[in-house]
Amino acid sequence: MFDQIYRKAVLTVANNKSVEGLVRKQAWGVAQRFVAGETIDTAIAAVQDLHKQGILGNLDLLGEFVDTPEKANEFAEQILALLNAAEGKGFPIYASIKLSSVGQGLTVNGEDLGLTNARRILRRAKALGGFINLDMEDHPRVDITLAQFRTLVGEFGHDTVGTVLQSYLYRSEADRDSLDDLKPNLRIVKGAYLEPATVAMPNKADVDAAYRKLVYAHLKAGNYCNVATHDESIIQDVKHFAIAHGIPKSQYEFQMLYGIRRDLQKSLADEGFTVRAYIPYGPDWYGYFSRRIAERPANVLFVVKGMLKG
Ligand code: FDA
């Protein structure tokens, strides 16, 4: 319950325009712990650094809720530029996109622009031997994102495109079952948006239990699972579950956010697990940064201290 109240308070304050102005101006130094710079070059350098430590990267150009076709197309062009820039840099090409950023919900030439742009991005990613994950956003977008995921897996295959399920949503267990025929590559997360109790579990213990259930079901079905969490007890349980059920390390990986639990990322990589850090970059870092702060009370102090230091 405290988690919910805290998250709601931080996200409500963060939505205030004057707070945004202040944080954007004063907190960039702190934000750089979670965001790998504002340009493609800084993002690629971050992947290369992690790669040296045995950790893979998952690049994410930040940006949300684009409202015109021009902006959506421009955003898609920037992702294509990222893929092109990452070619031949010595690491596997892997990126995440939010369909809302590339035009989901805008109809152009009789088709959803998010789908059209996702196809352009996937065509390029496939040609480069890369992989694109479709991030999951707030609950009104789940139906359309899963439908578009189904279409895209049909066209590009499950080794080129994956998506995400959020354990806080009551619907996710049924969604996972319904996707099984695709043998989908799924990232399981707890969920980062402010959602009403009618659609998302308000109690953290329920979200954690649902998380384990989703991962176990996905692994048991023989599918590839991206276990995306910093929750050490879940990570331990997944390792034990995999051993008990004879699931090889090649069928799953651990994913964490850039700058969070770097110690744990390194120790899992040293144990021989595939570990991938989600590396956000770009000038539009504020929304992402607010969600990370809303996840953990200690992070507010971290930000305030950083802002006071100037
Ligand atoms: P939980 O919040 O219970 O935290 C467990 C422990 O992790 C904490 O006690 C703390 O030690 C540490 N921790 C967690 N968050 C921290 C933070 N911000 N700063 C410092 N320590 C922290 N969500 C979504 O809705 N759609 C998506 O597509 C994605 N994609 C995604 C990709 C990847 C790779 C990750 C890791 C996460 C996401 N998420 C996401 C975010 C996810 O839904 C969730 O909000 C965060 O991962 C935090 O939840 P945990 O599972 O880490 O557990």
From TrEMBL:
PANTHER family: PROLINE DEHYDROGENASE 1, MITOCHONDRIAL, PROLINE OXIDASE. Transmembrane segments: none annotated. It catalyses: L-proline + a quinone = (S)-1-pyrroline-5-carboxylate + a quinol + H(+). GO terms for biological process: L-proline catabolic process to L-glutamate. Its cofactor is FAD. Pathway: Amino-acid degradation; L-proline degradation into L-glutamate; L-glutamate from L-proline: step 1/2. InterPro entries: FAD-linked_oxidoreductase-like, PRODH_bac_arc, Proline_DH_dom, Proline_oxidase. Keywords: FAD, Flavoprotein, Nucleotide-binding, Oxidoreductase, Proline metabolism. Coiled coil: none annotated. Its EC number is 1.5.5.2. It is an enzyme of class 1 (oxidoreductase). Residues 44-303 form the Proline dehydrogenase domain. One of its GO terms (molecular function) is nucleotide binding. FAD binds at M136, Q166, K190, G191, A192, K204, T229, H230. It holds the Pfam family Pro_dh. Binds 1 FAD per subunit. It comes from the Bacteria. Substrate binds at K98, R291, R292. The lineage of its organism: Bacteria, Thermotogati, Deinococcota, Deinococci, Deinococcales. This is proline dehydrogenase.
